[in-house]
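A protein record in our archive is deliberately plain, so that people and models can read it alike. The tokens are whole numbers drawn from a learned vocabulary of local backbone shapes. For reference, a complete record is included directly beneath this paragraph.
>
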Amino acid sequence: MTSLRLLHTSDLHLGKRFGQFDEETRAALQQARQGILSRLAQVAAQEGAGHVLIAGDLFDTETPSARVIRQALAAMAAADPVKWWVIPGNHDSGAAEPLWAEMARHAPDNVHLLLQPEAVQIAPGATLLPAPCQHRFAGQDSTRWMDDTESPEGHLRIGLAHGAVLDFDRDQNGAETIAPNRASTARLDYLALGDWHGDFTLNKRSRYSGTPERDRFKHSGRGLCLLVDLPGPGELPQLRQIEVGQYYWQDLPLELAPGQDVSTTLTQALPSDRDDWPDCLIRIRARGWVTAAQHLELTRLVAEQAPAFCHLSLDEAALRIEHRVEDLDQIATGGTLRVAAEILMAESQNSALAQDDREIAVAALNRLYAVLGEGAE
């Protein structure tokens, strides 16, 4: 009976720019992303997986630089005898002919570019059915052809595809949506999917691996790949997640209230092991109510701790600041500054004003309080 062990990964997005971060953070994330192929190769060697399936979006765009392309191929070549099986995704679709021509021109023998929906034998007794994205917007289910494609009797049937199974935005299936029962209709032992950056189990034979190096706060933790054991045709696959990402991403909720010790609350929320901080990207989502003094302390603490992390930021969208008369006393007890502060406080609490206008008044009052607080220090 044929058995096979392989790694399933997707959405590497090599060459991603990370424009939302500062230059130093961008460089760190880009370097980690470029090194992910070597880490995957190391896992494959350690686990005895002879094949790595990349379910689309190896690159972030259809026009990656020559450096990104050649370094990716060099990393895969260095992993010989591991074999790499690559399909285009929506970000690096098959329509990007110069990209895939360059890849083909320099690809080593252990890298296989699957640009057409054609069955290929990847190992004795194992047939791979790839569904490459021919265009950025497919307009149809790219896996449909698998149902009518035969493979030698006794072969493992493995599907490889990139795209959505469910349209989460509209809560309905679209023309480009992969049928959720494709593994069943196409008699697949395993369907390796890409596109969703977090890991997601569709059913016992269909799985999204998620990106091996996280790239957004939506999917927390470190990036993963899937070790897939296929015991034999018709048998259920055995799956194990393996952590391969260098950077740890976290959306960190922080509940605050007047009278609370902001310093203690923040310290308890941050990772306890400071040795991990350089590899952490954390977005603090502050919620609740605080006084102006607490707010100033919170922003000061976050700014003070940020250099110890790869990235640390504060999201205050859900945080409300309670301004009190004593806060105004700290700004000024009289004169022009006091008058300005009283006007801003009145506008911030005036329900007759538009929400945007009230928020502008709050922001101005916070800024005035902070500037004078900095001056006092």
